[in-house]
Amino acid sequence: MKICFVTEYFPKTESLEVKGGAEATAFNEALQLSKNHELIVLTSLADGMSSEYEIKGIKVKGCGRKRSYVQSGSFKNRLSFMYAAYQEGIRMKVDLVVGYNFITHPVAWKIGKKLNIPSVARYHDVWIGEWVKNVGIAGITGEILERYTLSRKFGLIVAVSLFTRKKLESRSKSQKIAVVPNIVEFPPFKAEKYPVPTISCVSRLVEYKRVEDLIYALNILNADYPSLRCNIVGTGPQESHLRKLVEKLDLQKKVKFCGFVKNHTDVLRIIKSSHIFCLPSKVEGFGLVIVEAMGCGVPFVASNIEPVMEASAQKGGLFFNVQDPQDLADKIKFLLENEDTYNHLKEEGQKQYEKYKGERVGKKLEYLYTRLYEEHNKNRDDLKIEL
Q1: Number of domains in the chain
Q2: Residues 343 and 376 in one domain
Q3: Residue 42 — φ and ψ, nearest 5°?
Q4: Same domain, 168 and 20
Q5: What are phi and psi of 60, to 5 degrees?
Q6: How confident is the model over 206-250, as pLDDT tens digits?
Q7: With contact defined as beta carbons under 8 Å apart, do 183 and 361 qualify?
Q8: Which residues span the domain enclosing 297?
Q9: Residue 14: exposed, middle, or buried by beta-carbon count in 10 A (0-12, 13-18, 19+)?
Q10: According to the model, what pLDDT value does residue 286 have?
Q11: Which of 120, 294, 321, 365 could be bridged to 316 by S-S, CB 3.0 to 4.6 A?
Q12: What is the CATH number of the domain that holds 229?
């Protein structure tokens, strides 16, 4: 097949400058499917990016005017990208089209409709009724687009978790919905542990990720663990607020803001060098970074939200009550003081990580997309016979 992915962002080079989960998912799945199929990716045109290039055998086209990475808002630029991607898509000869987030789901559907080919929505989470609460007033656009998406008839929706499928089924009962987890895989590498106990956190710095709860937990632990350190990887609109909170609590020597780390291997090295990984988020569709931590052999402490507990199979770490810094501090303390539990979680987490290897997940997607393509063409041939 010739498959088109529509994703708002995509790596520009083999250094894999990945900023978000949907982008990482699109790249990993394109890489696997490109082994047996021709892949072309439509994405935003960014500074320093050619309008057409190839990365690891995947053809990429930048669409629309150049724009910077954003996590919310930027309505006009996003609308411009959507229109440009649609115009590019309908000029191509492809067999199947896949959208990767709320911006690209409608584009994929419209391309599929225009070309009479199957369209797929790769779905991380359902935010209907929650957009404004999660990202503020800019969430109105997301609310409108997601309601539009789930009122369309896709050939298939592929959810990243059972949790997401349940939410989709409550909103879109007529859709075909499959569940295939994200690919999480990286080559083995070595990393030296930090000389003092260190927690790492990799997250977009937005309100619903609740990074401030980790900072409050560090403040609680400060008296008993004066050498404890924390590295926070990521950027976002909450960064200024979080830096001020660190100053207010006089934790400047304990907390390091690493910003955006361009090379994903360097992100993984920060995780692997740490002693504990933390994901305090109150909203996730899957929890990809938790699986990365398990693959690095680093036990985690994460909020007890359903998708993260599902992704980890409740192995490899401990769970705290969401938005409860005291409980988070207690779980971190338990890991620091109980070596046997720590080693057991490390071992079982690495076993769980094996379930998300690229070849295993890629075969599931290939089966679903091939069957969808064959069924679509069979129905089209039957229609011709009847006419």
Answers
A1: 2
A2: no
A3: -100, 125
A4: yes
A5: -125, 135
A6: 999 999 999 999 999 999 999 999 999 999 899 999 999 999 999
A7: yes
A8: 198-356
A9: exposed
A10: 85
A11: 294
A12: 3.40.50.2000
pLDDT of residue 298: 97
Q: Which two tokens stand for residue 168?
A: 């989709």
Q: How would residue 77 be classed by pLDDT, with cut points 50, 70 and 90?
A: confident
**What are the two backbone dihedrals, phi and then psi, of residue 21, each rounded to the nearest 5 degrees?**
-65, -40
- 3-class secondary structure for 8-67? CCCCCCCCCCCCCHHHHHHHHHHHHHCCCCEEEEEEECCCCCCCEEEECCEEEEEECCCC
C-alpha dist (Å) from residue 162 to 128, 215, 232, 290, 372: 17, 31, 29, 17, 21
Whether residues 174 and 268 share a domain: the answer is no
Please report which confidence band the pLDDT of residue 52 belongs to, taking 50, 70 and 90 as the band edges: very high
- How many Å apart are CA 352 and CA 307, to the nearest integer? 15
Q: What is the DSSP letter of 193?
A: P
The two counts, helices (H) then strands (E), for the chain are 14, 14
pLDDT for position 340: 96
Q: State how far the Cα of 174 lies from the Cα of 183, in Å rounded to an integer.
A: 27
35 and 129 share one domain:
yes
CB 97 within 8 A of CB 6: yes
Burial (CB count <10 Å: 0-12, 13-18, 19+), residue 37: middle
The reply to whether 190 falls in a domain is: no
Name the residue among 304, 267, 326, 13 with its Cα closest to residue 163.
304
Q: In the chain, what is the straight-line distance between the N-terminal and C-terminal CA atoms, in Å? A: 27
User: What is the model's pTM?
Assistant: 0.82
Domain annotation covers residue 274: yes
b/e burial code for range 281-300 (CB count within 10 A of at least 16 → b): bebbbbbbbbbbbbbbbbbb
Domain co-membership, 211 together with 158: no
Structural domain includes residue 92: yes
Residues 46, 129 within the same domain: yes
Domain annotation covers residue 192: no
CA distance 246 to 254: 9
Question: What is the pLDDT averaged over residues 264-282?
Answer: 95
* Rama region for 116: left / alpha / beta (φ>0; ψ in -120 to 50; rest): left
Check whether residue 56 and residue 127 sit in a common domain.
Answer: yes
Q: Which of 262, 275, 265 is nearest to 230 (CA)?
A: 275
